[in-house]
């Protein structure tokens, strides 16, 4: 498995500490996960002196050995360079690691509480209690984690209680990077949001983000509550676009449309835009699912139910739940069939499995009596309970060999380049269910597949309205003449 992610294209942001007449401020990053590690490495690239602390000793050991514990294009090479140039260090959490920091960034997890929609804030409050005793006077605590409105005030109160009389700032600075594009997103953001009440906090953030301002990246200074709300509302809105595309996709299947053209037609309206309208197996990942649930929870608690987002959560749950019956419909039945699942990461260019649709589909297929093999270019799935009933293939070819059906879940570049004719020949059956609409229908037909994309009607099911009858006659003729394969 290639654990090393490729480098991203060169970016225009380069360290320029000469812009600061003072020495570069020291930054301690609490949490070296997807956000902490990317943020810490990128801030080091900008010329800051960064120490990343994490309580996970295995993660720190990997980092000290020069390995990124996550697959993220461009990250490992960038990390190596910053370490070699002396601006980036890693260690397990030690209170003294905070003592000299001008800025302490909190980038710990805020997952859902087990069995609940509510965000679990125990990591962030625990991290605050751990850093408070060693904070230096004038230090700025920067909250990168995604937290409900009001959390920054609680963090301020925790520190104030432990360090009466200490002058310090608390700033909300939510992160908008996407996994798989994290380095590029951090270095070239659409905007930076800073929520703070005090001048010292604002001046500190102006210093951190000066090079972005020089490149005309919009920086929105607002209250901490607004900044906290912006993060959840942004994710809720994007998740809503995806859920909408998935609903329209289902409608297209029933109405004889093709969702690819329908979303293209919608997205050409500049007020709507083309992005985040790709239908798929339902959104997953470490953010959309938990953040939409938290948004719903916050609305309920404050007596302002967020009904649109409640629907988004329910639609997405139903979609993931329906995946196995869609495969069963395509195959007739899953029992006794060998099914190759292509991709288990929740999206390409990451090895993150959190809330991935695969974790719902694969156990359901196994439960239905299928023999399941899966292949993913980057995910190391050993020990993942949901995938234990299935076999991990080491290559794409090995997953497809002798399979009755292929089911594509993640749109990895490797799958786009699949030699379809050879793939079909190596399989026992012809069924191909594509939850990402990666291939052209006619190409799949020519390769001999019974192709099941999402969001378009199987040809035989066109509606029998007058115009539908004409269309269905044209299609029948095309099928008879061998110009179109039944999918
Ligand atoms: N993953 C993303 O793409 C993304 C993007 C934007 C925002 N966010 C938000 O950022 C936050 C972090 O997300 P993540 O995906 O990086 O999480 P993660 O689970 O990958 O990383 C969190 C890290 O914090 C460490 N940690 C926990 N408590 C600690 C402590 N007291 N001291 C030191 N280290 C500690 C954990 O060991 C872990 O390595 C969350 O609030 C998330 O919602 C995530
Ligand atoms: O048109 C689309 C776009 C996305 N997705 C799915 O939506 C999920 C989330 O995708 P994406 O947003 O690209 O990945 P994340 O890394 O989860 O990033 C989101 O969540 C982060 C954590 O909060 C935010 O920082 C980012 O701005 C936000 O895009 C994945 O399952 C995708 O497959 C679709 O199905 N169709």
Automatic annotation (TrEMBL):
Location of the active site: 287
Keyword Ubl conjugation (UniProt): no
Region feature (Disordered): 1-23
Domain UDP-glucose/GDP-mannose dehydrogenase C-terminal residues, every copy: 340-441
UniProt keywords, alphabetically: NAD, Oxidoreductase
GO molecular function: NAD binding; UDP-glucose 6-dehydrogenase activity
InterPro entries named among the record's database cross-references: 6-PGluconate_DH-like_C_sf, NAD(P)-bd_dom_sf, UDP-Glc/GDP-Man, UDP-Glc/GDP-Man_DH_C, UDP-Glc/GDP-Man_DH_C_sf, UDP-Glc/GDP-Man_DH_dimer, UDP-Glc/GDP-Man_DH_N, UDPglc_DH_bac
Residues the entry annotates as binding substrate: 176-179, 231, 276-280, 284, 347
Alphabetical list of SUPFAM superfamilies matching this protein: 6-phosphogluconate dehydrogenase C-terminal domain-like (SSF48179), NAD(P)-binding Rossmann-fold domains (SSF51735), UDP-glucose/GDP-mannose dehydrogenase C-terminal domain (SSF52413)
Enzyme class: oxidoreductase
Family: Belongs to the UDP-glucose/GDP-mannose dehydrogenase family.
Descriptive protein name: UDP-glucose 6-dehydrogenase
Organism of this sequence: Aurantimonas endophytica
């Amino acid at each position: 498995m290639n654990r090393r992610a490729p480098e991203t294209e060169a970016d225009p942001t380069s360290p320029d500490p000469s812009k600061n007449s003072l020495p570069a401020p020291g930054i301690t990053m609490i949490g070296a996960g997807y956000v902490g590690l990317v943020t810490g490495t990128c801030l080091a690239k900008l010329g800051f002196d960064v120490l990343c602390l994490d309580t996970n000793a295995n993660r720190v050991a990997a980092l000290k050995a020069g390995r990124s514990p996550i697959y993220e294009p461009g990250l490992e090479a960038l990390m190596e360079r910053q370490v070699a140039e002396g601006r980036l260090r890693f260690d397990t959490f030690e209170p003294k690691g905070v003592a000299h920091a001008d800025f302490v960034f909190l980038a710990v997890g805020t997952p859902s509480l087990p069995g609940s929609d509510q965000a679990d804030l125990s990591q962030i409050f625990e991290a605050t209690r751990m850093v408070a005793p060693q904070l230096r006077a004038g230090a700025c605590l920067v909250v990168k984690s995604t937290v409900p409105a009001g959390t920054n005030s609680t963090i301020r109160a925790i520190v104030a209680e432990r360090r009466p009389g200490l002058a310090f700032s608390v700033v909300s600075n939510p992160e908008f990077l996407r996994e798989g594009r994290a380095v590029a997103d951090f270095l070239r953001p659409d905007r930076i949001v800073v929520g703070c009440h005090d001048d010292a906090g604002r001046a500190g953030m102006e210093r951190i983000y000066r090079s972005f301002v020089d490149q005309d990246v919009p920086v929105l200074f607002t209250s901490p509550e607004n900044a906290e709300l912006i993060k959840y509302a942004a994710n809720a809105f994007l998740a809503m676009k995806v859920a909408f595309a998935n609903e329209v996709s289902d409608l297209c299947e029933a109405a004889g449309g093709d969702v690819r053209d329908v979303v293209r037609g919608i997205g050409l309206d500049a007020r709507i835009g083309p992005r985040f309208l790709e239908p798929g197996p339902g959104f997953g990942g470490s953010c959309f699912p938990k953040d939409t649930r938290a948004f719903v929870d916050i609305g309920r608690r404050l007596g302002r139910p967020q009904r649109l987002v409640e629907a988004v959560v329910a639609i997405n749950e139903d979609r993931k739940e329906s995946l196995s019956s869609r495969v069963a419909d395509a195959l007739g039945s899953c029992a006794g069939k060998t099914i190759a699942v292509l991709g288990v990461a929740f999206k390409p260019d990451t090895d993150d499995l959190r809330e991935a649709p695969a974790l719902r589909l694969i156990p359901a297929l196994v439960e239905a009596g299928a023999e399941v093999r899966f292949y993913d270019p980057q995910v190391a799935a050993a020990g993942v309970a949901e995938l234990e009933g299935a076999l991990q293939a080491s290559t794409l070819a090995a997953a497809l060999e002798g399979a009755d059906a292929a089911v594509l879940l993640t749109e990895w570049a490797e799958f786009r380049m699949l030699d379809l004719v050879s793939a079909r020949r190596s399989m026992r059956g012809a069924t191909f269910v594509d939850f990402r609409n990666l291939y052209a229908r006619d190409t799949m037909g020519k390769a001999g597949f019974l192709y099941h994309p999402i969001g378009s009607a199987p040809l035989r099911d066109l509606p029998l309205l007058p115009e539908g009858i004409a269309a269905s006659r044209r299609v029948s003729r095309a099928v008879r003449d061998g110009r179109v394969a039944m999918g």
